[in-house]
Specification:
By secondary structure, the chain is an all-alpha fold. It folds into 2 domains: 52 residues, Homeodomain-like (Arc Repressor Mutant, subunit A, Orthogonal Bundle), CATH 1.10.10.60; 134 residues, Tetracycline Repressor, domain 2. The chain is elongated and about 60 Å long. The termini are far apart. It comes from Metabacillus endolithicus.
Length: 197
Amino acid sequence: MSRPVGRDSENTKKFIKEVATKIFDYKGYTATSMEDIKKETNLSKGTIYYHFKNKEDLYLYCLTQASNDFVDKWGIISKKESNAEEKLYSWAKLNSMELQQPLTNTIPEYLVSVKKDDYTPFIDMFKYEFDIIQAILEEGKKSGEFKSDLNIESTTHILFSLISSLSNSFFFGYKTPEGQRNLYTNAIDIIIHGLKA
């Protein structure tokens, strides 16, 4: 991508985000500096700081955009599925594909490095992803696919946490996209039995 012109340009902000995401992917949150981003974008620090107040602000913007992209992809994929069970499998498959985007794997490092007591803004960033799970579970409950007494809130948190934790599966030998996809599918296989009516 060529360097966009204009400090106030939305294209400049998008360009910074794209470059910063690649650097955060590669180096992680802690090892990435604003100087790294300045060098890779070939923009002045003033231009970068015009759009983002600091590294944390830029990092959270990159994560928010990644979450928005996930939700947009889900909007397309979910229309192809006819019931809640199929949607749950498709959601897991999309998560396994997103695993190829290492930015989400930098989240634990970020949380350790910033040492904040209040994670509410961070959790709010993933609200739409929680909404996806909740909608699938509510659909399954309403259609009779899932238990009528299913606790939607706690099951949403369990599913999100379980599937998110699988992002570390490469440590355990799941290094290929196919192996990771199969692992995510197996996780849903196990969960489906507990959800069914």
